[in-house]
Task: structure prediction
Amino acid sequence: MSASARRRGLWLLLIPMLLWIGLLFVLPHLKLFYLSFISRRGGEFTLANYLYFFQNPLYRKIFVRTAVFSTLVTLLTLFISFPIAFIITKVAGKSLKAMLLLAVILPYWVSELIQAFTWMVIFRESGVLSYLLQRLGIVNQPIEFLYHDTTIAIGLIYTSLLFMTIPIMNSLETLDDSLIEAAYDLGGNFWSTLREVIIPHAGPGIMVGSIMTFMLNLGNYVTVTLLGGKNSLWFTEIIYNQFIIRFNQNKGSAFSVILLTFSVVFVWIVLKITKQDLSEAM
Amino acid sequence: MFRREGFSLSKSLFYFYAVLVLIFTLGPLVIVTILAFNNNPSASFPWQGFTLDWFKASTPDRVGLFDDARMMHAIVVSLKVAVVVTIISVALGVNNAFLFVRHNFAGKNALYLIMLGPLVVPGVVLGTSILAFSFGIANGLDKIFGAGTGTFLRPGFWLVVFGQVSFVATTTTLILTARLKRFDPALEEAALDLGASRAEAIREITLKFLAPAMIGAGIIAFLFSFENFNTTYFLSGSDPTVPILLYSRLRFGITPEINAVSVLLMVVTGALGFLSSVFQKEDAV
Result:
């Protein structure tokens, strides 16, 4: 193929790509960034949209709550997922392995909205859990399990279980079983082997899974609003309120930029502290 | 594989844990499925007998999902959106795969990293950014070409399609790039040597090789589109997709019909998910 034909071919492929990523990703985010520094009326440069956020104690509280809650749920998901990944890769026979894999993947195929809905069916006042406890005689009146932090946490863990389990599985798969055997031969017990051999090897998978889970929690909307109701106090909710209910694009943009900046910086800091290289881990 | 004493004790613990995991992940889905056939209008237990009313009924106090005009309309809207998003995203995926695998150009790595962005950015931020951007363009179009010309960029069908393509196309690109990397260019050269034109060689040899991955990526794109909430929520207008309609109804309470809708979605998306894993397995060979 001649050089000019190759060039033409390159541009033919480059144009659709640039149109897509430019019009649907890069420019919208630049616009968001721009709007966040512009006053709603008048349209001149201002920091007021950001000051409005940082001077409002409720918004600050929601921000900290979302960040801390997301982190705690990510850790919980890690503790639940690690044994699952370990069982699937190192312990289970063929049929249990297939069943566990299906159990982790099936909720993911069902949309997040349906996932949250199933927990509403279980936890609401006239729901399945409340009915069960009454039938067993443990309580004598209906109990509302919705709108608690625990309920939100269960819903969040449910939605991100797969995103934590699969990367850990991938990293455990490359761990040679004989290394675990060797650790036992050298006098190690289950816990020391786990600490000295298994977890260090799974490090990159744990990192990828934790980052994905954390981002999913931070950006969640459906699960937290359905299971938390008015008590959810989640950051994405105040973005929605500014954009859709108050129709204030400038404040909404500033809030979106804050969420985006925070998630990128947080992930970067975690990578630095744990000395992990994301591109290596991926 | 491990025959240590300590391990056999932990092994039974592991099995116990596996059972707990199965209950946690599958239990809720099983419960909703049972309730969808329960003849109890409170959408809860106790069991009051088997019924199909929540799927098909139109009496004053019972409307099944197939007789619920708004629900059926939302299903149609969701299907239309998903089909258009799938076609655009797979086409873009093939395009981008050829770009990244067959060409070298300045800034290629940077472009690849930017392309991963839509998967990393929270869906809510993606939705708001596209809403804010298109709002400005729609106003500009209305001003320059007359009122109404920018309407397709206001919340509604096309804006939902654009918003979903923004992140779905990243996924299809990743799947198709991985597949094209494993293609041996010598096959295409051979076709050229045998007298095929370049277009014929690509169509008959390379695209045929990509076909299973295109179907697999298409199913994933369809699933992602059909299930999306976060981005769609900001971009849909008066014609909601199924997740948006369900969400607005759930805020007013749970009806048995929603159990039935869930079962329908579980069956359809479960089947699609299963299909996609079949195609990915073929792809791996």
